[in-house]
Amino acid sequence: MTGFKRYGFFLVCTAFALLISTQKGSAQTGITYEEYKVQQAGYEKRVAEAKRALLECQQSAEQVNQQIETVTTQVATVQQEIYRLIGSDESGVSEYLQELDRIEARLMGLLSLSDEALFDRREEVDQVEARVEGLTKDKRALLPEAMSKFKNIDQLIERIKARMPRKRIRQYSVLKGDSLWKIAKKPDIYDDPYMWPRIYVENRSLIKDPDLIYPNWMLNVPFGVDLNQYLTLRGDNLSKIAGIVYKDVTSWRKIYQANKTQILDPSLVFPAQVLDIPAN
Q1: Out of 74, 103, 109, 121, which residue is the most buried by the measure of CB atoms under 10 Å away?
Q2: What is the CATH number of the domain that holds 181?
Q3: pTM
């Protein structure tokens, strides 16, 4: 029973109860027949008014229900038009939003890690950021709920990157028979002997000749670089690096100009060089 019907039914029942109560009361109080008829007429009038009020409530309820049905149909029509514009459907939108929820939960987990642990997960953070960038290109990203989730995700990524060290120093105790080449080749160091110059550059105050190091020396072994830097690897050249950092191989001159002190020939870069990368 709707609220309107219950209210009308209550009015009718109240009126009848008052009428019966009045009839009993008239017998007990000894009022005259004429007085009784006047009272009865008054209550009958109230019953009639209650019935009219009930009818009006029912009519109003029917109008409201019709309006609700009309609005519901309009909402469904608009929703279908939205799905058409974004090239998806209810299931696709739900799947998209759920992926954003999973990314948000993943970032919250990363944010709870220590700074050092974050450094070890920096590739994962970069992967998540790349995935988020890809998702923003989807038309479903225009949905208000998706935009709200992206705003929170962007804030989480900023907080993580603000805490994440891009360079970490690990100490290594030189063993008998070690060389910079052998140390760089170790799987738990760089797993690449051609990266030995990086250890040399980091320890130039101690190492006077890169071919001469001695047992028990404590060397600083750097890992990672700052956000505005790039660590060159075997096979790198300025065009390739520009393609990675700028997505434009023709922008290699920017990198060359910013690193003239260590790049003598723009056609030649060496492994383990840490290049400054100017903003695009």
Answers
A1: 103
A2: 3.10.350.10
A3: 0.49
DSSP 180-197: HHHHHHSTTTTS-GGGHH
* Same domain as 264, residue 209: yes
Same domain, 106 and 195: no
Looking at the structure, do residues 201 and 267 belong to the same domain, yes or no? yes
| Amino acid of residue 232 | T
By residue range, what is the domain housing residue 205? Answer: 168-276
